[in-house]
Structure formats: structure tokens, C-alpha cells
From TrEMBL:
UniProt record similarity statement: Belongs to the ferredoxin--NADP reductase type 1 family.
Top-rank EC class of the record's enzyme: oxidoreductase
Localisation: Mitochondrion
Entry annotated with the keyword Signal: no
Principal location listed in the UniProt entry: mitochondrion
Record-linked SUPFAM superfamilies: Nucleotide-binding domain
Any one Gene Ontology cellular component term annotated for this protein: mitochondrion
InterPro entries the record matches: FAD/NAD-bd_sf, FAD/NAD-binding_dom, Ferredox_Rdtase, Ferredox_Rdtase_adrenod
Presence of keyword Transferase: yes
Protein name: NADPH:adrenodoxin oxidoreductase, mitochondrial
Amino acid sequence: MLKRRIFQSRRWLCRSFSSIIHSEPVRVCVVGSGPAGCYTAEKMLKASQQAQVDIIDRLPTPFGLVRSGVAPDHPETKIVVNQFSRVAQHERCSFFGNVTLGSNVSLAELRKLYHVVVLAYGAESDRSLGIPGENLKGILSAREFVWWYNGHPDGRNLDPDLKSIDTAVILGQGNVALDVARILLRPTTELATTDIASHALSTLEESSIRVVYLVGRRGPAQAACTAKELREVLGIKNLDVSIQESDLHLTPTDEEELKSNRIHRRIFELLSKAATSRPIHAGLNQRQLRFVFFRKPDSFQESKDSTGHVSGVLFEKTVLKGVGPGKQIAVGTGEFEDLKCGMVLKSIGYKSVPVDGLPFDHKKGIVPNDKGRVLSDTSDTAVLEEGLYVCGWLKRGPTGIVATNLYCAEETVSSILEDLEKGGLISSTAAPKPGRDGLLNLLHDRNVRTVSFNDWEKIDSEEKRLGSLRNKPREKLATWNELLTATSEGTDHST
Ligand SMILES: Cc1cc2nc3c(=O)[nH]c(=O)nc-3n(C[C@H](O)[C@H](O)[C@H](O)COP(=O)(O)OP(=O)(O)OC[C@H]3O[C@@H](n4cnc5c(N)ncnc54)[C@H](O)[C@@H]3O)c2cc1C
Ligand SMILES: NC(=O)c1ccc[n+]([C@@H]2O[C@H](COP(=O)([O-])OP(=O)(O)OC[C@H]3O[C@@H](n4cnc5c(N)ncnc54)[C@H](OP(=O)(O)O)[C@@H]3O)[C@@H](O)[C@H]2O)c1
């Protein structure tokens, strides 16, 4: 199904490159400079010689989660920014950072200014568990923790207490959960030469955390992570990994599931191997990673010292029920067990948030759409929101790797091209759309200081210079003030 959709989008992209001629440029605004936004801009520029693309982002820095999500010890994943930089530097493309849709400019305004608006602003909030005690101190979302160690300016003040606790519980077993476990457990000498934020490195150097629990509501045959990432965490130097062998018992449905899913089969094999190859003598100060399966969080426990701090998680044991492979869900058994801890990281998924005037499917946490075309609502009678498109996590939900957004962008761009060819987006009778000039006038009137791609390159150079002093690829500027100070005093709109 997915392959067929990709094939159809590609066919459309090839067919329509030069066939659409308009009397004025096709003015496109892409909101968000993460992978979805950058791939959309790239495909749009390539497909239509008349497209003029402006990318806006609320941060002074581009590239979304490639900068603020991808782990510091995954430098190879970040190489894609070279490709994204070439897109932003294209003669028909501009980047305007420090511009927030929803506060600096509204969706209605953007739609008036541009023929096409593509929303690719990701998922900047968190799913919640909705269980008692969720607001206790020491309970953080993985998103906040990741922002903190990756130098996102909104994560700078998180200041997690890793010094007075010895145990952390991570809820969820996806790749983000594995990332945060690895950052907590990996020797800091190995992190020191990455682009990890310096405030995070100092805190991790003083960490007294010795035990990390990775807790899943389902079993080892359903774990949401991928093999490379699991191998990496299992391979951390001098780490004692434990998995209860009884959790590795497979039901016939699990076996069916594993037969048809190579990734899950590989994960299960790795976990089985890890369960049987524990070191016989765990050292006194050795760090431990404990996988816990078949437990769903029921409530958080508060410490007795009235500080409002978390002291543990109460879990309900689960069994899997479901009609078939891949559809098994965790069901509570009525049996409970707690795990004492000083910190909880909820890694149960990100969540997108709507802006004013944007149709939103609150149940799925996405913008309702048909192949990237925004729909007015989620009903069967929904109509298309003309000129409005969506891409990336905001379109599909918070799953998929960087490359997934390339296929997603191809689909959205081929929808745009189809609509352009039908003549719906640029009318010969309507007044021309002001596009970039209109946006810059509006932002100027509101005293919004935009950050151009040239300005970002100044931040980039400064970070690389600071990094070279510490044998790091870069030292991220991690406050709004530092970031904006590093840009030029005057506003440069040349790229
Ligand atoms: C912690 C983590 C680690 C990951 N590691 C990897 C990895 O190693 N390899 C891999 O392939 N994939 C990885 N991924 C997945 C990958 O990062 C995502 O698939 C991808 O970033 C999603 O792209 P996006 O453009 O939809 O969203 P994002 O990358 O989140 O980009 C959204 C952009 O929109 C901007 N924005 C938000 N709100 C507004 C607003 N109101 N106005 C203007 N701009 C706004 C943001 O600043 C951001 O730049 C990781 C994901 C996470 C969460
Ligand atoms: N290195 C990489 O390539 C990399 C790194 C990081 C992220 N990513 C990608 O980014 C995407 C997002 O990753 P993610 O880890 O945030 O999401 P994810 O892969 O969807 O994992 C979410 C985890 O949370 C659990 N969960 C969800 N709701 C829960 C609840 N109410 N109670 C208990 N557990 C709950 C899920 O369990 P169930 O399975 O039972 O639902 C799952 O274990 C993924 O596609 C991932 O592959 C890639």
C-alpha cells in the first residue's frame, strides 16, 4: 500500500516538472525546517521552476529534530543537514528563523500571503498517561530531557537532579526511550567528544544514577525499538543488563507475530541473548540496565518528605490479548508491583498541537488530510482547505525516521502539483499574492527579528569555534540570548 502510494507520488512528480506555467511565481510558505519542511521545499523547488519557497521556523536554528532530537552520539544521522542547507541556500528559497506560527503570524495571515502553505511543524508536546501523580517533581517527558541534552533553548532550564538519586525509570521501549537510557548510562568520557550541550555533560558527569529500568507494557516480542539502537545500548561498556528469562516465554500468537516481522524477530533474538549472557559478578559501582516487560503504569508514588517529589511507580502486571499478530494489546491483570526510583522519564510518544484556525484530529493527534491536503474536519463530509497542506509528524503522527519524511514530502508535493495543474491555487482574476515581501512587511511592523540562513551560519561558525576548543564537533549555544547575539545585528534577507 505504502509502496504504491510512493510510486504514484514519484510518477506525478516526474510528469509535472515543467508542464505548469503561471503568470506569477508560485508563492509557497513551509512552516517548520525539520526533515519534513526541508524535503518539501527541496521537492517543490525541483518540481516547479516557478516556485518561490520561504521556510519559517520558530527557532533561530534550522533542521528541527535533526538538531534537537537525534542523539549527540549519532553524528552520522546529522550529515543530512548538508543536503538541507543546500535547499535553504537555493536561489528561490529563503529561511526565516525566530518566526512562530500562531504568535508572530497567524495561519489566516499566511494563507492570505501565499498561494500554498505547507505545515510541517512537527510534534512539540507529549502524550500523557492520565494517571495519578503525573505532575510530581522528578517526572519528565523524554522530549524535555532530549531538548535539555541537545541544547534546545526551551530545554535549557530543565536542570534535572541526577546527583541525589540512584534509580531512574523510563516508561516506553521505543527508540527515544533507548536514546535517553543510553545518555544516562554511557560513560561521560565517550559523550564528551560529541555535540552534547555542555550544561548536560556537566550534570551527567556528576550523576549518581546506577540503575535504569526500561519498562514496556507489552512483551519482548513487541518492543518498539529497532535492532541497531538496541545493540548500541546493550553494548555500553561495563554495563550489567538484566532481563527476566520468564518474560521471554512466547505464546503461539507471539510466534506468529515474529514469523512475519523481521525487525521484531531480531529484537527478540538480541534480548534473549542478553538475558543469558549476564556477567557473573556485577561490580559494586557498575551501572545496570533492567528491562521490565508486561507492566503498565498505574500511578506515581510521592516521597514521604512532603517535597512533592516522585519516589516510585506503581505498575499493574499485564497479559496480551488480541485478535491476531501485531494487534495484541496489554490488558491489566489486577496484580500490582512497584518500582522505587528518584526520576521518571515518560517516553510514550510525542504529540502535535494545533494552531488557531487549523482543523485538528484530537484523537489521532494529527491534521486531518488526504495525501497531505488539509481537510476541514474529520467527518465524511469534510471539504478541502484550499492551498493548505501538511507534511511530516504533523501529518502522520509522531513516528518514522528522518527518511520517512522524504516519502511523506513527495506525496504532499505531488498533491500540490496536481492542484496547481487543475488551476485551483492561482487564479488569473484574483489579486496577486504578496508572498515573501508581504510576510517581511508584516513581521517588520510587529518588530519580529527574523534570522536568515546567513545569520544561522554565524551561529553555526561560532558553535564550531567553541567546539574546537573542547575537542567537540560543536558547542551548542543553548539560550535564546546567546543564539540571537551570535547572529548579525542587522537583519540579512539575502538568502
Ligand atoms: C529524540 C528523537 C531522536 C530521533 N533520532 C533519530 C535518528 O537517530 N535517526 C532518524 O532517522 N530519525 C530519528 N528521529 C526521528 C526524526 O527526527 C523525525 O522523523 C523527524 O524529525 C520528523 O520531522 P518533522 O519535520 O515532521 O518534525 P521536526 O523535526 O520536529 O521539525 C519541526 C520544526 O518545526 C518548528 N516549529 C514547531 N512549531 C512551530 C511554530 N509554531 N512555528 C514555526 N515553526 C515551528 C520546530 O522548531 C522544528 O524545527 C528521532 C526523533 C526523536 C524525537
Ligand atoms: N535512532 C533512530 O533511528 C531513532 C531514534 C529515536 C527515535 N526514532 C523514531 O522516532 C519515532 C518516535 O519514537 P518514540 O520512541 O517516541 O515512539 P514509539 O516508537 O512509538 O514508542 C513509544 C513507546 O511508548 C509506549 N507507550 C505508548 N503509550 C503508552 C502508554 N499509555 N503506557 C505505556 N507505554 C506506552 C509504546 O508501547 P506500545 O508498543 O505498547 O504501544 C512504545 O514502547 C519512532 O518512529 C522512532 O523509530 C528513531
